[in-house]
Amino acid sequence: MKLKESEIRAQVKEYLELQGWFVFYHLQGLGSYPGLPDLQAVKNGRTLYIEIKRPGGRQSEKQKKFQHNLEAAGGKYIIARGIEDIRNI
Questions:
Q1: 87 three-class SS
Q2: Residue 12 sits in a domain of what CATH number?
Q3: How many structural domains are present in the chain?
Q4: In terms of residue numbers, what domain contains 35?
Q5: Which of 42, 41, 44, 78 lies closest to 63, judged by CA?
Q6: pLDDT tier, 89 (very low <50, low <70, confident <90, very high otherwise)
């Protein structure tokens, strides 16, 4: 059975919180920055931006642009399709 993105997001959030990260959702919609990832996590001065995708899911052009701009500024962007994508951060 394939998990929904919301289920993957909840698993990733819970895993990171158990590792001591402060994690919160970015709500999409009016006033939100285009392409903003689903989650942001902070620990020991490090900040991660995490886009949740189902297996086979693809980024939108706005998400790709956000990733490019964030990484160009030295930020850390992760596409997570499950806990295995964040285990070694």
A1: coil
A2: 3.40.1350.10
A3: 1
A4: 5-85
A5: 78
A6: confident
